[in-house]
Amino acid sequence: MNITNKTVLITGGGSGIGYATAKLLSEKGNRVIIVSRNAAKLEMAARELNVDYIVADVTNAEAVKDLVVKLEANFSDLSVLINNAGVGFVYKLGEGANAVEKSRQEFETNYFAPVRLTEHLLPLLKKQPEAAIVNVTSNVAFHPLVVLPTYSDAKTALHSHTVALRLTLSADTKIKVFEVMPSLINTDATKDMGGEQRGLPPIIVAEDIYNGISEDVYEIFVGEAGQQYADYLAAPETAIARFNQGLY
């Protein structure tokens, strides 16, 4: 798919992977709109990147409806949706972990929000000559990390949804559905898990997203994720134990 001269919406675009992807896609000749609920951070990012922005909480159903109205009115040629916004809690399951409340927040952002926004934007995306939906999941989408247990659950759910959506839309639309599965990335959200020391820079994800869309690679593995997935398919128990070594 050609990924120049497109209008692109990126959720969670104020920092991290979203920011890097907005920068790269804008430099490649695309019109980019970044979305976040953090107005101050979003406005600063938009000024730095010289891109459009809309303040919206994608976990709020009414805010999503308002967002879609604005997009239809001002960006009617929108053809690429990148569901990137995410949240995760570093903790371990067990007595007193409060896993239900943590998982509610994680599922609202990491699963329900992209599912909702995608469904609302399908009519607009279907109008375009070619279009794409890009869901950013994680290497924990195919096996869990014990210190991100319910985040792993949410990303696994989004992975499954992405596969079903890809098959469904391929039957009667021109919309292509991509999934991005990064390994550890150095962002503000990963400081508690060693992102600053061991994480890849966000630009690596942005470059892989651009190349993956350009080459119609529907499952985009970033960093160590590709090898981790191959290891998991070959020997699941061994791969999961290695992935979680020293954490349980």
Automatic annotation (TrEMBL):
<comment type="similarity">
    <text>Belongs to the short-chain dehydrogenases/reductases (SDR) family.</text>
</comment>
<dbReference type="Pfam" id="PF00106">
    <property type="entry name" value="adh_short"/>
</dbReference>
<dbReference type="InterPro" id="IPR036291">
    <property type="entry name" value="NAD(P)-bd_dom_sf"/>
</dbReference>
<keyword id="KW-0560">Oxidoreductase</keyword>
<dbReference type="InterPro" id="IPR002347">
    <property type="entry name" value="SDR_fam"/>
</dbReference>
<protein>
    <submittedName>
        <fullName>SDR family NAD(P)-dependent oxidoreductase</fullName>
    </submittedName>
</protein>
<dbReference type="GO" id="GO:0016020">
    <property type="term" value="C:membrane"/>
</dbReference>
<dbReference type="GO" id="GO:0016491">
    <property type="term" value="F:oxidoreductase activity"/>
</dbReference>
